[in-house]
Amino acid sequence: MKKRLKASALFSIVTSLALLTTGCGAGSQPAAGDHANHANGELGKKRIALVMQFNIGTFSSQYVAGVKEQAEKLGGEVVVFNSDSDLAKMASNLDQAVVQHFDGILIDHGTAEALQQGVQKAVAQNIPVVAFDAALKIPGVTVLEQGDQKMAESTLEKLATDAGGKGNIVKIWVAGFAPMERRQESYKAFQAKYPEIKEVAAFGSATANTALDTQAQMEAILKKYPNKGDITAVWAAWDEFAKGATRAIQQAGRNEIKVYGIDLSDEDLQMIQDPNSPWIASAAVDPSDIGRVQVRYLYKKFKGEETPDNVALDPILVTREALPKEQVKMTDLSKFIEGWGQSKLALEPWMTETEAKK
């Protein structure tokens, strides 16, 4: 009897310890990358690294704001790694994010050469990765783009229509960026389609002061082509380029030259709405929306849900004639521009429920 009691008591102790251990395990935070285990439960607070090639201008600031807004609504915390346009630094920042065991990694721009090794390390450790405007082709990594070819096409078609299919234009563009390369494809098609529209100058560089540097370069172009009619329009493949070109044209009193840009921000809208501004149209996706959608795909990965390798967001052409006379902001655009803002892409019912609890 005593032996049975002792055995019974020993069994009870072992069972209690097992239950205690199980209980502690259920309440502990998962290791980085252990995301699929949450498919049917709460995700908990996630540490998210946002690795950026550069953080320049209002477009980038609104993009970052969208990332942080959506992450916070879903219970996440975002740490931004700004690489200051240095690809070596970007690769190092990505490695740091992996070493520091962030739960998920978001990437903004960059090249495959700089990012491939670091992203593969993240994937090997089951850390989900979602990139924006980065030319990555790694299974399991979702890459977002703005529909760059469509953006370029819509602005160039607007330019051609306004110019009557002929004229002299300046192209402001820079190589080495995935979205720029895609926009260049549309530009080549545009040149073939409109042989009477001649490119008389082309330049562009991404720097810490892109708009200011572009302004100086555009001033030099205007001196080279001083007469009215020498330049019909400027096509700027980035809003920082468009800002610089616009300021140079205004200061030179050459407002007969029209500017067509890509990307949009509150500052850009103010310039486009100015009746004395040469900048009259820009194609864009809401930068805040890009950030929000990118975070949603990351959270779908946290949940173990299927996500596509490539996602193209739909851009919208915003023209001065479509806007009211009173100044508007990005948050107001949906009132005047059909299809603008508040994308529901990748927004799942469980995300809405999670947001409602915050």
Structure, explained:
With 358 residues, the chain is of the alpha/beta class. Helix content is 45%, strand content 17%. The strands form 2 sheets. A 6-stranded parallel beta sheet has the order 2-1-3-4-5-11, with helices on both faces. Strands 7-6-8-9-10-12 form a 6-stranded mixed beta sheet, with helices on both faces. Helix 3 (87-99) runs parallel beside helix 4 (112-124) and helix 7 crosses helix 8 (239-251). It is globular and about 65 Å long.
Summarize the structure.
The protein is of the alpha/beta class and 358 residues long.
Q: What's the mean pLDDT score?
A: 88
Structural class: alpha/beta
N-end to C-end Cα span: 57 Å
Order of helices and strands: HEHEHEHEEHEHEHEHEHEHEEH
The CATH superfamily of the largest domain is identified as: Response regulator
Helix percentage: 40-55%
Shape-level CATH architecture of the largest domain: 3-Layer(aba) Sandwich
Class of the largest domain, according to the CATH hierarchy? Alpha Beta
Low-confidence stretches: 1-41
Shape designation: globular
Major sheet characteristics: 6 strands, parallel
Residue fraction in strands:
15-25%
What oligomeric arrangement do these chains adopt? single chain
Strand order of the largest sheet: 2-1-3-4-5-11
- What is the β-strand count? 12
Give the total of domains: 2
Radius of gyration, Cα only, in angstroms?
A: 25 Å
Quick tags:
Rossmann fold, 2 domains, single chain, 358 residues, 45% helix, six-stranded mixed β-sheet, six-stranded parallel β-sheet, disordered N terminus, alpha/beta
